[in-house]
Design brief:
Helix content is 24%, strand content 28%. By secondary structure, the protein is of the alpha+beta class. It starts with a strand and ends with a strand. It binds uridine-diphosphate-2(N-acetylglucosaminyl) butyric acid (EPU).
Length: 340
C-alpha cells in the first residue's frame, strides 16, 4: 500500500535548500509501487513533478501538486565480456556513490564525473558532464515507465537524443517517463582516461603522477571541484545555473577585440562555446552578495543561497545577470537549472 504525504517541505530535497512545500509527496521504491501510484486518484487529479536529487532545480514557489521521488536502489552487473562490464543502477541511487562503487571495482568511464550531486536516474536527463566526459559516453540504456500507460520502455543510447546538457527526457518526453534504472557500459581493464582538461593535468603534475589510474583522475576531479564549487550541504546551490552559450565565430571576433582573453571552445560549423562564468564575471557579478543570496566568489556561474534565501529572489538575480550579459556582449544565457 503506497503512502502519499501532504504539505511536505522540500527544503532537504533540493540542493538550493529552498523551503518550498509540496501539496503531495511520495517516494517510490519499486516498479509495483509506481504502478499503484498511476491508478491513485491523487496522481490522476493533480499535476506532478518527478524529482531526482534536487540538484538542478529552483523552486520559486510552492508546488501545488504531487512530487514523485525515486527511492529505487540497487547496483547490479547485468552482463560482461572481456573488455566491458554492464552495470545497472536504480534511479534513486546517489550518483557519486555509484561512481565510488565503480572505482572500487576498477570499472572505468565515470571517474571524471566524480562528486556531481544528484541521482543516477536524473543523470541522463540533463546528460551530466564534467572535465571532458558526459554520461552519454557510458550510457548503455535507460529504463523508463510511461506515466500515462505504466508501460516499461528501454531507451538505447541513441534513443536518448543526448546533447550538451540535453536529452529526450528534458524535451519531447519531459515529465512523460519515470526513469527506473540506468545501465552503464564501463571498461574493465583498458581504461580510456580523459585527462585533456588543463586543470586535471595540473593536479596530476603537482602530485608527480605520470601514469594515472582512474582513481587518480577521480581524486583530481574531486580536488578541482572542491576548490571552486561550493558544497551544497554547506552553501545552497545547484552547480552551474546557466549553460555555456554557443556563439558564431564572427560574433566572438568582435568581442575579442576588446576582450582578447575570452575563453572559447570551437564546436564546429564556425560556432564556439563561450564560458558563461567568464561573461558573468566581466559584468561584475562574481562574489556579489545580496542579502541571503549571491554569486559564488570562486565561480560566477554558480548562484548561491547563503541560508533563508527564497527561490524568487534567486530567480530575479538570475534574470538581472542574464540581462546584463545580453547588454554587454549581445549573448543570451539560458538556464541549465529547471525553474519551477
Ligand atoms: N571562468 C571565469 N570566471 C568564473 C568562472 C569561470 O573567468 O567566474 C572561466 C575559467 O577561467 C575558464 C572558463 O571560464 O577559462 C571555464 O570555467 P570552468 O572550467 O570552471 O568550467 P565551466 O565552463 O564554468 C563547465 C560545466 C560544469 C563542469 C565544468 C568542468 C556547464 C554549464 N558547466 O563549467 O558543470 O563541472 O565545466 O567540466 O557546462 C554543472 O553543470 O552544474 C557543472 C558544474
Amino acid at each position: 500500500m503506497i503512502q502519499i504525504q501532504e504539505n511536505i517541505s522540500l527544503q532537504y530535497f533540493n540542493t538550493f535548500g529552498i523551503d518550498a512545500k509540496a501539496r503531495y509527496f511520495i517516494e517510490v521504491s519499486t516498479d509495483e509501487a509506481l504502478q499503484e501510484l498511476l491508478h491513485h486518484t491523487i496522481f490522476r487529479n493533480n499535476k506532478y513533478l518527478i524529482l531526482g536529487g534536487g540538484s538542478n532545480i529552483l523552486f520559486t514557489k510552492n508546488f501545488d501538486g504531487l512530487v514523485i521521488k525515486s527511492a529505487m536502489t540497487g547496483i547490479t552487473v547485468t552482463a560482461e565480456n572481456d573488455d566491458f562490464i554492464f552495470v545497472r543502477a536504480g534511479s534513486g541511487e546517489n550518483w557519486h556513490q555509484l561512481v565510488m562503487h565503480c572505482l572500487q571495482h576498477n570499472w572505468g568511464g565515470v571517474e571524471n564525473l566524480s562528486l556531481i550531486p544528484g541521482t543516477a536516474g536524473a543523470a541522463p536527463m540533463q546528460n551530466i558532464g564534467a572535465y571532458g566526459v558526459e554520461i552519454q559516453n557510458v550510457i548503455e540504456n535507460v529504463n523508463g515507465i510511461e506515466l500515462s500507460t505504466g508501460t516499461l520502455r528501454t531507451f538505447t543510447n541513441s534513443d536518448c537524443h543526448f546533447n550538451y546538457r540535453e536529452s529526450i527526457f528534458k524535451q519531447e518526453l519531459k515529465e512523460k517517463y519515470f526513469i527506473s534504472s540506468i545501465t552503464l557500459r564501463l571498461t574493465k581493464k583498458k581504461h580510456h582516461l580523459n585527462t585533456s582538461y588543463g586543470a586535471i593535468q595540473d593536479v596530476l603534475k603537482q602530485h608527480n603522477i605520470a601514469h594515472p589510474t582512474i582513481q587518480h583522475v577521480s581524486d583530481a576531479v574531486i580536488a578541482i571541484r572542491q576548490s571552486k564549487l561550493p558544497d551544497p550541504r554547506v552553501i545552497g546551490n545547484a552547480g552551474s545555473f546557466f549553460k555555456n552559450p554557443t556563439a558564431h565565430e564572427k560574433e566572438v571576433e568582435l568581442i575579442k577585440k576588446e576582450y582578447p582573453s575570452i575563453p572559447i571552445y570551437p564546436i564546429g560549423n564556425q560556432n564556439v562555446k563561450v564560458a558563461a562564468g567568464w561573461l558573468i564575471e566581466q559584468c561584475g557579478w562574481k562574489g556579489k552578495k545580496l542579502g541571503n543570496i549571491g554569486v559564488h566568489p570562486q565561480q560566477a556561474l554558480v548562484l548561491v543561497n547563503y541560508g533563508n534565501g527564497n527561490g524568487e529572489e534567486i530567480f530575479q538575480l538570475a534574470m538581472k545577470i542574464q540581462a546584463s550579459v545580453k547588454e554587454k556582449f549581445g549573448i543570451t544565457l539560458t538556464t541549465e537549472v529547471n525553474i519551477i
